[in-house]
Amino acid sequence: MTAAPQKLEPGVDIIPALVDKITKVNELVTRFEFKRIDGKDFPVFSAGSHTVIEMKDGDRTIRNPYSLMSDPEDGSKYAISVRRDDVGRGGSLFLHKKIKVGDKVNLTYPLNLFSLDLRARKHLFFAGGIGITPFLSMIMQLESLVGSWELHYATQTEELASYGEELKNKYPKKVNQYFDNAGQAILLQKLLTTQPIGTHIYVCGPAGMIKWVTSTAKNVGWPNANVHSEEFLAPKPGKSFQVRLCKSDLTIEVGENESLLEAMEREGVNAPFSCRGGACGQCETEIVELDGEIIHRDHWLDPEEQDSGTKIMPCVSRFLGNSLVIDR
Amino acid sequence: MSKFLFPPSIPSRPTYGVLERRDGIFHIIIAEDEGAEAIIDFVGSDKKFLNKAHIIFVATKSGEKYVSRLKSLKSAQFYVGPSYSASVQRLQKVLEAAKMGSQFYLTGTEGFMGQAQNEIMKAGFPHTAIQTEHRGSVARRMQCVHCKGITEDVITDPFVCSHCGLNLFVRDHYSRRLAAYQGVRVDAEDFGNVPEPVELYT
Amino acid sequence: MTIQFNNETFRDDYSFWNSDWAIKRFPFPFHQDSYMYAVNMEMHKGGPAGSVYEKRFDVDEHYVSEMKDRALVLDEDPLRCQSLPHMTLAGWDLLELIMVSKSEDYPDLFELHRDGSIWRWINKPMDIDDTFTFMDETTLPYGPMEYITRQAQGDYVILDQRDEMLWMDAGMVTTQADWSLDFDIGMNFFEWHAPVPLAHEMGIFKRALKFLLNVKQSAPARRLNWTMTVNPLLDSSPENYDKWGIQKTTLTPENIGSKQHLRVELQTFFRLPRSNALVFPIRCYLISFQDLVTIPKWGRRLHRVVRDLPVELATYKGFIDNRPLMLEYLEKFDDGLSTSPGVWPDRDTEPPLKNQK
User: Fold this and answer.
1) Fewer Cβ neighbours under 10 Å: the N or C end of chain C?
2) Which of B26, B100, B104, B125 should we substitute to test contact with A (largest number of A Cβ atoms within 10 Å)?
3) Does residue A70 sit within a domain?
4) Looking at chain B, which residue has its C-alpha nearest residue A224?
5) Is residue A84 scored above 80 in pLDDT?
6) Active-site residues of C: which are they?
C-alpha cells in the first residue's frame, strides 16, 4: 500500500518505568510496584494480561513475563508478584536480590493470553502457588462488572498462600483455600461435575496442576472451549548449539542457559518477540536449512508444522544436530 | 436411505459428522424423524451410556414409525414431541438443570439441528462441542435478507419468501445465530426476470 | 483546522460532491497497474500531513452529512446496530478511544473533559454537549458503541477474541459494501469472509488472522479495500439491494463519468484495553470517475486495473455487467504511458494526458 513510511513491524512498544515499592509477601514471594518515568498513567488493561519486564544485570539483559496483579482500572501503578526460583535462569533471583527501589526497567504494553470469557455464566478459578497472580486482577475486574466467580487456591502451606488471607477476608463465600501440609486437596471431580452449563474454568499454577485440572475436565466431558489455562514456559536450558542467520549473515552460538531468541538479541539481531513463552506466535521463524532435530517447546505451531521442520519458535525451542540455518 | 452427502462449499456452510459416544456425566440426544436411525446406529446396546441418556425425539413427519424402537432402548429419560416448537420448552428446562460434563447429540434436518443448537449455545455451551449428524430431508430454513422473515422447508432455488413475497435466490452463506441460510432478491437488477426454480443439489 | 462541511445527500437526489481538497487526498488504493488480494497491512501511526492516514479517525467535509445519513438508515432499520450482551465493555473501550483520539487530533471540533468518571463530551459540528458517567449506560441516550459511532464516520465492527479466533459480536454497519450485520453477527473470521472468492484458497485469511490476533494496544494497523458503486450511495446493504440493485442498470456513456464511483475502504484495527477485543473501523471514501481522472496517473492506472481484473473478482465486486461500459469510458484516459509505483499522484512530474483517442 505504501501509504506512509511506517514499515510493517511486529515490534513491541516499551514503557520506561521505575521500581516504586518492594514488599516481601512471604519467604518465597515478593511484590514489585512500578511507576512510569514520565509521570503519566499506565494503560488500562484486561485482567489476565501480562507484561514482559526488561532489566539490566551488568552486561546481560533479562526479559521475563509476569502477570499483572494490579487493578486493571488503576493506571497509577503496575504490580507483579515474583516467586523466587533458586534453580532457574536467574531472572527471579535478580529481582529478589539485586533490584532496588528507584531502579529503571522497561515494561511492555500489556498482552493478554489468558482472558476472561465475558459470556460465561460463572467463572471457576483454580490457582496453585504463584499462579494466584492473574486471578487477583480478574477478581477485581469481575467485581466491577458484577460477574459470578469462585476461587480454589492450593498452596504448600498457609504462610506461602500469597494474598490468601486478604482474599478470604474480603470474599469469604467465594474463596476456598487448601494447604498441602494439612493434607487438604481440591475435590476436583466433585467440583467439575456440579457446575451449571455456561461455566468456564481457568487454571494457573505449576505444570502438574494444570495437567491435573485440564485432563480431569476432559475426562468428565468438559469442552475445550470452556477450559482456559496459562503456564509461563520459562525457556528451559539445554545443550548449546550453533545457528546460522542467513539474513544477518552471522553464525552465532546459543549457550546452555540462554534461548535462541536471547542469543540473537545478544548479537544485536533485531528479532521480533512478544510473550517470550512459546504461546503467541510473534517470533515464528522460517527454517532455511536443517540437518538435525528441532526440539519444539512451544504451544503455537501445530503438530504438522512442527514435524515439517520448516518453522521454529526461537523464544523457547532448541536444536540438536549438524546444521541449522534460519531466516533472520 | 436418509443420509445425504452435501457437496463441499464455502467456510460458513455448516458441515455435519457422524455421532459417536463420548465421555460425559450425562447425554442429551435430540432427534427428528429419520434421526432415530442415527441414534440406533451410534447407541448400539451400550447400557451404561443409555442409563445416563435423555432422548428428546421430535416426530415432525414420521408419526409413530420410530417411537417403539426408541422406547425399547430404555434410556434414562425419553420424550416424544409432535413438533420442534412444542418441544422447545422442555429442552430449555433440561438445559437449565444440566451440568457441565453433559454431552449433546443432534440429528435430523439442518433446520431442526440449527435451532436446537441455538438453545444449547444460549445456555453457554460452545457449538464446537455439540455433535451433529444430518438425516432426512435436505430442505433449508431461509432468511429473507430484506424482510427478515424465515421461510421453512425450502427445497428449490429460487423460492418465494413466505412473508413478503419476493423471489429469492439461495445462498450457501449460513448464520448459526439465526439457524438459517441467506436468501436475496433474485431479480433485483432486472425486475421480473425470475429463473425457473430448480431443486437444491441438482 | 477549519473544515467546510458539505450539506449533501447520499440517496434520492445524490447531491454528494468532493471538493478539490477531497479529490487530492482521496485514498487511491492501487500501487501498481494490476490488483490481486494481499495481506497489505501497515502500522496505523500517522501519515503525510493532510492525508487521510494522518489522524487516528479521519474527519472530512462529508462528516455532518454522513452522520445525518446514518441516522436515517437507523430510523428505517435499527438492526444495523447490534451488540451481543457481553460486548458492552468493549463498547465503552471504543467510546473512550474515539473521544480521546478526536479531541486530541481535532481540538477545534471536539472536546473531552474528564473528572474521575464524570465525562463531558462536546461535538461542535454536530452540536452535541453531553455529560455522562463512564461505564454507566443509564447516563447515555444509547449504549456506548451506538452513542459514539453515531458521531464517527464509517462502519465499526467489534471483534471478541476467544479460542485463537475473532468473533463479530457487535457492530454499527450503515455504509457497507453489500454485507449484513444482522446476518453475520456471531460469525467467526473465516465464516463472515466465506463469500469472498479465491482469497481462502490463497491462505489470505489464515495469515491475516494470525496478524490480527497479535495486534497490541500500542500498535494499531491499517489496510485498504475497494469496490465500485453506482451513485454516491453509502447504504449499499443487502437489506436494501432490492432497491439499489436496479441503479446499476441505469449507466450510459453520457452519465457514467458522474454516476460511477470508486469506493475505497480505509480499514483500521485497534486493540481495546479492558475487553481485549479488536475494533475494526471501516471508513468509506467515494469518488466519481470524472473526478478521479483529473489526476492523470490515477486515470491511466484505473483503466488498467479494471481491464485486467479476474472475472471472479469483478463478479464478486458487483460490476461485471458494467465493465464494458466502464472500460469504454476509462480508455479515453489511458494513453499507454507508464505509471510510477505507489499510490500518490505525481502532480509535479507526471506528463499530462496525450491526445485522447
Assistant:
1) C
2) B100
3) yes
4) B129
5) yes
6) 223
| Minimal C-alpha gap between A220 and chain B (Å) | 5
What CATH number is associated with residue A166? 3.40.50.80
CA distances from C239 to B179, C242, C283 (A): 18, 7, 20
CATH number assigned to the domain comprising residue A290 = 3.10.20.30
| Whether residues A128 and A224 fall in one domain | yes
pLDDT in tens, A17-50: 999 999 999 999 999 999 999 999 999 999 999 9
Expressed as residue numbers, the domain containing A70 is 14-112
State residue A5's pLDDT score: 37
Is C96 among the domain residues? no
Q: Is A225 on the interface with B (CB under 8 A)?
A: yes
C347 part of contact set with chain A, CB < 8 Å: no
Q: Which of residues 11-30 of A touch C (CB under 8 A)?
A: 11-13
Q: With an 8 Å Cβ cutoff, are C194 and B190 in contact?
A: no
Region B141-165 average pLDDT: 97
Predicted confidence (pLDDT) per residue in C283-308, tens digit = 999 999 999 999 999 999 999 999 99
Pair A206, A254 in one domain: no
The answer to whether C42 contacts chain A (CB < 8 Å) is: yes
From C342's Cα to the closest Cα of chain A, the distance in A is: 6
Rounded to an integer, what distance in angstroms lies between the CA atom of residue A182 and that of residue A197? 33
**Of A142, A111, A109, residue with least CA distance to A124:** A142
Phi, psi of B199 (to 5 degrees): -65, 145
Chain position carrying cell 465500485: C228
In angstroms, the separation between the Cα of residue C144 and the nearest Cα of chain B is 23
For C217, which of A10, A11, A109 is closest by C-beta distance? A109
Q: Do C219 and A141 touch (CB under 8 A)?
A: no
pLDDT tens digits for A237-289?
889 999 999 999 999 999 988 899 999 988 988 888 877 888 777 888 999 99
Phi and psi for A126 in degrees, rounded to 5? -120, 115
Cα–Cα distance measured from residue C131 to residue C122, given in angstroms and rounded to the nearest whole number: 9
C-alpha to C-alpha distance for B38 and B17, rounded to whole angstroms: 11
Looking at the domain assignment, is residue C346 inside a domain? no
**What is the number of domains present in chain C?**
1
Confidence of residue A11 (pLDDT cuts 50, 70, 90): very low
Look at residue A320 and tell me whether its pLDDT is greater than 80.
yes
C chain contacts of residue B178, beta-carbon cutoff 8 Å = 183
ipTM attached to this prediction:
0.91
CA nearest to C216 within chain A: A111
